Amino acid sequence: MTDLYTSQRTMRHMRQAAMQRGVVAILDVGTSKIACLVLRFDGPERLREQDGVKPMAGQSQFRVIGAATTRSRGVRFGEVAVMNETERAIRTAVQAAQKMANVRVDHVIACFSGAEPRSYGLAGELDLHDAVVSEQDVSRVLAACDMPDLGAGREVLHAQPVNFALDHRSGLGDPRGQIGHRLAVDMHLLSVEGDVVQNLLYCIKRCDLELAGIASSAYVSGISSLVEDEQELGAACIDMGGGATGRSIFIKKHMIYADAVRMGGDHVTSDISKGLQIPLATAEKIKTRHGGLYATGMDDRDMIDIGGDPGTESGDWDKDRRQISRTELIGIMRPRVEEILEEVRATLDVAGFDSLPSQQIVLTGGGSQIPGLDGLATRILGQRVRLGRPLRVQGLPQAATGAAFASAVGLCLFAAHPQDECWDFEIPAERYPARSLRRAVKWFKDNW
Description:
Blueprint: H1 2-21, E1 23-29, E2 33-41, E3 62-71, E4 75-76, E5 79-80, H2 83-101, E6 107-112, E7 118-127, H3 135-143, E8 154-166, E9 169-172, E10 182-193, H4 194-206, E11 210-216, H5 217-225, H6 228-233, E12 235-240, E13 245-251, E14 254-261, H7 265-276, H8 280-290, H9 297-301, E15 303-305, H10 317-320, E16 323-325, H11 326-351, E17 360-364, H12 373-381, E18 385-387, H13 406-416, H14 444-447
Parallel strand pairs: 1-6, 6-11, 12-17, 17-18
Antiparallel strand pairs: 1-2, 2-3, 4-5, 7-10, 8-9, 8-10, 12-13, 13-14, 15-16
């Protein structure tokens, strides 16, 4: 784990070097698509960091100057499964984005949705030597957090201070320079399967690129899809990708919980393919053009051709010229979508989501575009559900403004203005890692 701690620090320095040069690439490695955006950082303020422990960023001084997507290959459940296929897909996306931007890119910041993320809430406190809180005091209190036993082969992906308390005053964003006697911190830690991260790192290196940052898709989707009030008062972002559905919970502009389930839009496609005995490519087209979750009387009469695509004919005329009603298609799709939403509901209950002041749920990601999803989600998840689109960023092509690009857009904001993580502070090496834990989300009630 100390190795990842060191490499995260190295990535931070690389990000600053890339921003100094003015260009960095964003890489969203998904199960159904790989998206690459090239960002240019403009003006003298491109390295101007705000002082303090930074919460979530707004629009920074950058614009998108290149964008490309390609069909993902070799990625399953948001994880690299076939190295050379994923490498080829990443190269294709990066080269196309570089060509559009007319600039060469050496550094990328990547996000991914797999690796079984797990959330922990950590707490630490200490007495201050001096009455005024210094940078070293923040380092020391972060080091005083009891570290959970993450399990064999797991590494820390995010470790963010989300709340400081000084004596009896809680809810502080940045305690530095303030006067008090006892400093406490709450930290959110997200762990992932180490091998999955190492595979992604190795794959990016094979593409002759340097990794200048890495993030969870669930986290960056929340950054781009939740509006400011939702981030402040409490909201969950449900990022429905092709192979995985990520969940993240935010309050006071910080992520306090995240995880993912290995189910997404591709599973709906697979159900259609098996149910109708048609190729996956045909099933995907039918899902996109005719899919839905609520059947009306009209849908019994709305017939869909399910054979006869060039190259997919079997030679059996009856099989190739089959038709089904839209009602039958909805009957295949709905149970799987219900299963995904029930899984989301169970996760939110375990995380203590119902104890937040506001319980807004925002659905995003490519899988959220199925007609009728918001209605079904309202029935399963609760009244406050909306479909989310990522925030606008300068220069983003129209084709990349939809829900499927929530994590790519969020990663742009993360790249431009990341929240402080524990490796941004000079934590004494012998104190990293330490011991035990408190369950994520539960501690927020005591402090905020």
